[in-house]
Amino acid sequence: ATRSLLRAGLLLLLLLATSHQATGAPVANELRCQCLQTIAGIHPKSIQSLKVTPPGPHCTQT
Length: 62
Description:
Elements: H1 2-23
Protein backbone atom coordinates (compact mmCIF):
# COMPACT_ATOMS: atom_id res chain seq x y z
CA ALA A 1 0.00 0.00 0.00
CA THR A 2 2.86 2.37 0.80
CA ARG A 3 4.61 1.63 -2.49
CA SER A 4 1.52 2.34 -4.56
CA LEU A 5 0.94 5.57 -2.66
CA LEU A 6 4.55 6.59 -3.25
CA ARG A 7 4.26 5.79 -6.97
CA ALA A 8 1.05 7.79 -7.24
CA GLY A 9 2.65 10.74 -5.46
CA LEU A 10 5.71 10.68 -7.71
CA LEU A 11 3.52 10.46 -10.80
CA LEU A 12 1.46 13.41 -9.61
CA LEU A 13 4.60 15.48 -8.98
CA LEU A 14 5.93 14.60 -12.42
CA LEU A 15 2.67 15.58 -14.11
CA LEU A 16 2.50 18.86 -12.20
CA ALA A 17 6.09 19.74 -13.04
CA THR A 18 5.68 19.08 -16.76
CA SER A 19 2.35 20.89 -17.06
CA HIS A 20 3.70 23.97 -15.23
CA GLN A 21 6.74 24.07 -17.50
CA ALA A 22 4.60 23.79 -20.63
CA THR A 23 2.35 26.71 -19.66
CA GLY A 24 5.26 29.05 -18.89
CA ALA A 25 7.14 28.44 -22.13
CA PRO A 26 7.49 31.48 -24.41
CA VAL A 27 5.78 31.36 -27.76
CA ALA A 28 8.36 30.87 -30.52
CA ASN A 29 6.48 32.90 -33.14
CA GLU A 30 6.83 36.18 -31.21
CA LEU A 31 9.54 38.14 -33.01
CA ARG A 32 10.53 40.69 -30.40
CA CYS A 33 13.97 41.83 -29.23
CA GLN A 34 15.07 44.06 -26.40
CA CYS A 35 16.34 47.56 -27.09
CA LEU A 36 20.11 47.71 -27.43
CA GLN A 37 20.17 51.48 -27.09
CA THR A 38 17.87 53.73 -25.10
CA ILE A 39 17.49 57.48 -24.75
CA ALA A 40 16.79 59.65 -21.74
CA GLY A 41 14.42 62.56 -21.68
CA ILE A 42 10.96 61.15 -21.05
CA HIS A 43 9.50 62.58 -17.88
CA PRO A 44 8.06 59.83 -15.63
CA LYS A 45 4.78 61.73 -15.26
CA SER A 46 4.30 61.45 -19.04
CA ILE A 47 4.29 57.64 -18.93
CA GLN A 48 0.74 56.31 -18.80
CA SER A 49 1.59 52.60 -18.97
CA LEU A 50 4.60 50.35 -19.34
CA LYS A 51 4.73 46.82 -20.70
CA VAL A 52 7.89 44.71 -20.49
CA THR A 53 8.08 42.02 -23.18
CA PRO A 54 10.74 39.29 -23.01
CA PRO A 55 13.01 38.85 -26.05
CA GLY A 56 12.15 36.24 -28.65
CA PRO A 57 14.33 33.17 -29.25
CA HIS A 58 15.81 34.67 -32.44
CA CYS A 59 17.40 37.65 -30.66
CA THR A 60 21.16 37.22 -30.46
CA GLN A 61 22.09 40.60 -28.94
CA THR A 62 19.92 41.32 -25.92
